[in-house]
Amino acid sequence: MAEHVLYANRSEWADITPLEQYENDQPLAPIHYTVEYKDATDYFRGIVKIGERSQRVLELTKAIIDMNPGHYSVWQYRYETLLALDADLEAELELMNSVAVEHLKTYQVWHHRRLLMMRIRKPAPELHFIANSFQTDAKNYHTWSYRQWLLAYFNQDDLWEEELDFVDTMLNQDIRNNSVWHHRFFVVFESGIREGEEDRERVLKRELIYVKQNISLAPNNPSAWNYLRGILDHNKIPYSRVIDFVRPYSVPLDKDAADLVDLENPPPSKGAALPCPQAIEFLADIYEAEGGDSTLKATEEQFRLGVELGHEGSGPTGSYITLLATFSCCASFLTYKMFSKLAALVALAFSAQVLGHYTFPSLVTDNGLHLIQVNGVTTPAWQNVRRTNNFNSRSPVQDVTSIDLRCYTSETGATAETIQVAAGSEITFLTDDNMYHQGVANVYMAKAPGDVSSWDGSGQVWFKVYEIPAVADGTTIEFPSTGLTGITFTIPKNLPDGQYLLRAEHIALHSASSFGGAQFYIGCAQVEVTGGGKLPTSTRLYPTLMFLSNATGNGTPGTACSLQFLIGS
């Protein structure tokens, strides 16, 4: 490489008077330039002063650009000199290719190319140059901005024709490239729209399927989630339209779930790291838009589901810590708005769980949380079990004189669908959390005089069909039901056909040493028994549900005991 010769030592520049950069007599922080750079820029100021436009000006400006590609004054003067000399702009574009690749993040490089292209007006080869430059940096803002300008400025059909295929190729190389997702939106929904050539409804459906499939492959990809939001916002579609797709991504992965092929709502891929913070934020926005009590109920329900499905048997405290750890490891993805929402949702979701509360919701809602199993088949929550008025808080019944002790009779619209069960068949009530407290479990039935869906279960009609009692040896006591996630029992095989209320309860005794301290966790399902016989003599009849619990010892209905005394601790 030839040794650099200062312009001050070049005879061909002897006619130019160099001008130093003025920094006043005593600059506070003078910039330390290299000798070569100071020499070149001094001569540049000299030729600007006299307004020279010549070939040697192009050589000088190229030398300065090589040393400082961000010198916008030099770029502008070079462009004006090219026009004054009627220079070959295509040759200039070729000359600047190496500069662009070497200085991709310098705005002036791309602005100069833009000025040249407005004169050359041959955009197709430039698209290929840009594509090649992406091999060096596929996420450079200036490069993508230049490509979008090129497409929109010339707006030629042949340019747009293959652009979507180009986007697909780029996303196949890196599905998380946010720049490519942004460009796809630009092509499909903004400047790339070719009026009258496409069915926009078909395009909308295509893009929804496309982004969902990509989320399925990489659920924790914020770029794809943002694209989904962009589609919905642009087309004025409420987020609730995709809630069925979002929900499975907001909870831990169900590794035992059956493989499903659903093009419109593809499930998470095997091995996906769930729950996904972006999905949880998506749900929060849906519930926020809905407003009202449904917001609190839905958010709490969703978080509880995530913990229980992902950390079975860990207990409420362990689940809480695990979910917080999930948020912590994902902190780099969280916006302040998103983190605030998640923090609020955590508080909602665990306000009841940290107390160890639970319900017997029987049949699941469409989120698969609350379950009852009949003949090995799991049915949706609150479908065949009457929704309780505590389904949100999961707090227990403690007033044994309340009508809610029977079947949450005070809940408005608590009726459910009636499901057929065979006499002698096995049924499992599953809780929405394990039966955390020490206590006993019981199952009762009551035959309705007619349609069970409109019957409140009043009267001397209840009888016990199953129990999980305490086990004591005189000095210690154990409660086998503690920690279980459900109660499994058999419908008496000789039970007469007809419609019944089926009631499960867990009586938590941890606070029962004081009056009103016993906690009743209850669920009531509606069943129609078939293939039965006569009333079994082995089941014990009770005059009313009120006497399902013992007396406190002072004549007041209720349950009283001291676990500390019984355990002997």
Automatic annotation (TrEMBL):
Short name of any one Pfam family annotated for the protein: PPTA
MF annotations from Gene Ontology: CAAX-protein geranylgeranyltransferase activity; cellulase activity; cellulose binding; protein farnesyltransferase activity
InterPro entries recorded: AA9_LPMO, Prenyl_trans_a
Occurrences of domain Auxiliary Activity family 9 catalytic (ranges): 357-537
The family this protein is said to belong to: Belongs to the protein prenyltransferase subunit alpha family.
Record text about domains: Has a modular structure: an endo-beta-1,4-glucanase catalytic module at the N-terminus, a linker rich in serines and threonines, and a C-terminal carbohydrate-binding module (CBM).
Descriptive protein name: AA9 family lytic polysaccharide monooxygenase
